[in-house]
Design a protein that fits this description.
Blueprint (H helix, E strand, L loop, with lengths): L2 E6 L7 H9 L4 E4 L8 E5 L2 E5 L12 E4 L4 E2 L1 H13 L8 E3 L3 E2 L2 H14 L11 H10 L11 H21 L8 H16 L3 E2 L1 H10 L4 E4 L23 H8 L6 E9 L2 E3 L11 H11 L11 E3 L1 E2 H11 L3 E5 L9 E10 L2 E3 L6 H6 L1 E8 L16 H14 L3 E5 L7 E3 L3
Parallel strand pairs: 1-10, 1-11, 2-5, 2-10, 5-7, 6-8, 7-9, 11-15, 14-16, 15-19
Antiparallel strand pairs: 3-4, 12-13, 16-17, 16-18, 19-20
Length: about 425
């Protein structure tokens, strides 16, 4: 039963979309197992860019079944718009299957996300204000509406009335906002969204197990990344779900024994969006150059990403948390312009060297990176297709990262295109 999980090892934006697209050609099914449309996956095919938010990256292969699993929170308007854009580009979206147990993002989730962030001021979490956190909060509080509720108008209205009674009271009395209208929401969700989404709703757990039972290849695609994980990330500057490999089991509906491989995705440097600690963050010319060369702006939000040197301490922790079997390294070509490269090999905290992040957030905020310097290569890697095409310094850099992290790096990206990668020895 060959299931493979793809996990981001940093703070997101590592290139999961490209890797998923690359692996998908050998898959029967690709499953998104958590997150919402706050996670953008970019795939470049034939010079055309596809910015995917909810639809699994494997949708670009006509032989494959793309699945939105039960662990995802779905904004129907965003999903329908994304499907329409893909269809306009000639992509067949009729194969998409959506779990009836996935939760819906409702208008009050988005409104609460916006007003809460404003209310917090300087203490804000830097969310995308798209309702993902409040939707997951309602899921945990057992008052959420699910995709399957779109198929039963009576149940939908009953659940909506219960939810709005509380949400409108909070919006009005705490945030001085106008109440939301249940009739308008019902008209939109039941009248517009349900006819489009309803035919795609299915028992995705059953379909997934059927595929695995037949020996078909299944790829489980995570959104966000390890250090945005609700339990294991840099809390509270995290997402509201579990991107680590364990989350794939819950968000898709399989057991851990059905997973054969866990591939971690890492940039050749590190980025993050929004607030939170970042030990290797670079300001000044280095940070600006990484942003410029890596085009480090959010796929969905357009926000500038914070950039820094590769952090092997974080990567080692990601290996532990998800039992990574290998790593795919992306954007090595972005480092072409540097004479010298730095790699964080340890943290220093209170006079002690740490090989893994400290458990306490106060200590993590104050750690100092311990760097190893390596020579750059100052040559264009974008045309490399074989290992021999890479200069010695580039191969040495990858080998050093692999040694520091403790798992093999088997794939290295040298550009944004689908075929711009180099395979290292297995």
């Amino acid at each position: 039963m060959p299931a493979t999980v793809v996990v981001g090892t940093q703070w997101g934006d590592e290139g999961k979309g490209k890797l998923t697209d690359l692996l998908a050609k050998d898959m029967h099914m690709v499953v998104r197992y958590q997150g919402g449309h706050n996670a953008g996956h970019t795939v470049v095919v034939g010079g055309e860019t596809f910015a995917l938010q909810l639809v699994p990256s494997g949708v670009l292969y006509p032989h494959l079944v793309p699945v939105i699993g039960n662990g995802v929170v779905v904004d129907p308007a965003v999903l329908i718009e994304e499907l329409d854009v893909l269809s306009s580009k000639g992509v067949d979206t009729s194969r998409l299957v959506i779990s009836g147990n996935a939760h819906l993002i409702m208008p009050y989730h988005q409104e609460l996300d916006r007003v809460t962030e404003r209310f917090l001021g300087k203490a804000s979490l830097g969310t995308t204000k798209r309702g993902i956190g409040p939707a997951y909060a309602d899921k945990a509080a057992r008052v959420g509406l699910r995709v399957q509720d779109l198929l039963d108008a009576k149940i939908f209205r009953q659940k909506l009335d219960v939810a709005l009674k509380e949400k409108n009271a909070v919006l009005a009395k705490v945030y001085n906002r106008l109440p939301l209208d249940a009739g308008e929401i019902c008209e939109r969700y039941l009248g517009s969204y349900a006819p489009r989404i309803g035919p795609m709703v299915a028992d995705t757990v059953g379909l997934l197990h059927e595929a695995l039972g037949e020996g078909r290849n299944v790829l489980l695609e995570g959104a966000q990344a390890t250090f945005l994980d609700l339990d294991h990330g840099t809390y509270p500057f995290v997402t509201s779900s579990n991107p680590v490999a364990g989350g794939a089991c819950i968000g898709a509906g399989i057991g851990p024994r059905q997973i054969d491989a866990v591939i971690g995705i890492a940039k050749a440097y590190v980025t993050r969006v929004g607030a939170g600690p970042f030990p290797t963050e670079c300001g000044g010319e280095v940070g600006d150059l990484l942003v410029e060369r890596g085009q480090e702006f959010g796929t969905n939000t357009g926000r500038r990403r914070r950039c820094g040197w590769f952090d092997a301490v974080l990567a080692r922790q990601a290996v532990r948390l998800s039992s990574l079997t290998e790593i795919a390294l992306t954007k090595l070509d972005v480092l072409d312009a540097f004479d010298t490269l730095k790699v964080c090999i340890a943290y220093e905290s209170a006079g002690e060297k740490l090989a893994y992040p400290p458990y306490h957030q106060s200590a993590f905020h104050q750690v100092a990176p311990v760097y190893e310097e390596l020579p750059g290569w100052r040559s264009d890697l974008s045309g490399a297709t074989e290992l021999s095409d890479l200069p010695d310094a580039a191969r040495d850099y990858v080998a050093f990262l692999s040694e520091q992290v403790g798992v093999p790096i088997r794939l290295v990206g040298v550009g944004p295109g689908r075929d711009q990668f180099v395979r290292f020895a297995a």
